[in-house]
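Format notes (please read before filing issues)

Several people have asked whether sequences and structure tokens are stored in separate files. They are not. Every record keeps both together, in the order shown below: the sequence lines, then the token lines. Line labels are part of the format and must not be stripped during preprocessing.
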Amino acid sequence: MAGPGSEFVPLVVVGERAAYLRAGMPCAGSARDVLAEVARVEAAGGPRWVVPSAQASLAPLVADGLPVARTWDLAEAHRLLHGGWAAHPAVVHATLAGLPLDGIPRDREADLFDLPADPLDDTRPDDPVGPGGYLRPEALTLGWADRDSRLVALARLVGDLAATQQQRMAQLGPRAVATAYSESAAAVLCLELERDGLPMDRARAEALVAQAAGPRPTSEADAARIRAERDARVLAHAPGRRADLRNPAQVKDLLAAAGVEVATTRKWVLEPYRATHPLVAALLDWRKDERIATTYGYRWLDEHVGPDDRLRGAWTASDGAAGRMTAQAGLHNLPAPLRPAVAAQPGHVFVRADLGQIEPRVLAAVSGDRAFAEATLADDLYAPVAAKLRVERSVAKIAVLAAMYGQRSGAAGEALRDLQRAYPVAMGLLDEAYAAGLARRPLRTFGGRLIRLDTALAPEAGQGGGEGWDAARGRFARNAIIQGAAAELFKAWAATVRHLVRPLGGQIVLCLHDELLVHVPEQQAEAAVAVLHRALADSARRWVGASAGVPVRFVAEVSVIHRWDEAKG
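Then the structure lines:
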């Protein structure tokens, strides 16, 4: 008998109507009735639901709290196979059918100059694929899917598209199929993250915003007064001068008058001058406060933190480039001064886990460099690398990071040459990626995601091109091949954690680059710590695969905290 999830069952939801097709037997009708049946099947150890996208078909189920376990997401699979972001069902269908994307018909309202369609041209009006071979633009609307037969036909098409995708993934290897599974799970996790939100201490958040931005303004005039007072604390260090601190040119002149000559006013340029003149220190502190005041101030709290004290924003499972998860509403860019406001609810804690030195460890895995893989057996990968290169740890770290980010000058240059001699296989992989970037050849990550380099970092009209753009594209490619693989491992880990913490009453509430934040009842903290470590070991073993034969060790720093700022690093 087939195990749970081995059976593919296509599911479509079109407005208030839905259908799925299981073992050739359709279930179609109102979305309420069909999704109730889906919930019953899922609770009994469900199949792998095939959907055009998690957002399109599974959002109502996730909103009702149903833990959808296994899916195949056409959109996420398409982004893996073909790269980029666009993954509408019409794009997925046309791509798999080998049809030009610029021929996809667009749905629009008819006008007086439109000629009526000839019904004789459409001999199969109940087929979601129109006479021209493309998906009908109206196929995903209630105007067309107004009867069960059409909904079932649409579900059958979704199932056929998934089967073709799976075949093409299988041609890339079993790891690519597994990546499609975890990417599909990540899309469902995104719905859960948006539903559940990030727990916040609203009173603490208000106090921290007030500390940076001043008290909550009572009017526009009051807001202008508070803003002027914030500016005055900087201008006090430049007596007799006035400047708009939001204008880089005026700030540059202001600094020059104080004897601080800089090419730009960017933070990394100004930071070394912090101790040189109090104006610089005040300006850098002002920028932190200004960012909170303008982006993470009272309006942000009012709009994004709900009455249940949860910060919510939309999530996506892939950024369309290297495949990292992204989030809105400040969830991925929350300033450090506001982190104390991220607090577990009473009776709960956060279990925070951060993948350690993830990118160099991924480099060891994807390159198959046995010498570099040996370094991953240490808790601190850079220590054995430094010993092998006979340099300080700090130099070894700079060299490894420079190799992945394309830096060639300075202290990294000499160490890089030693790295290439010590770890030729790993460095060779990065050099091959760089060459692909120069030539605008596509790359695939370890898990099978296509990275399109024909359009990456292309100069805009009038900017020309040349070696500078090519070199930038090469640097992008050598980093994307590693960052993309790291994102795949992270999502495989997150998908595993998502399943394992649910019986503990836990939930993932934040995915931040290489960091997971899990909210669990306090009495389950130790169990959750063990789950995070075990899930990483299991996910990494499946992701690397036995065929690679490279003993790469992945590590996570895991801690139990009540507020996000209590975490180290």
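For reference, the curators noted about this record: The chain has four domains: 8-107+117-172, 202-302, 313-358+488-566, 362-485. The first strand starts at residue 8 and ends at 14.
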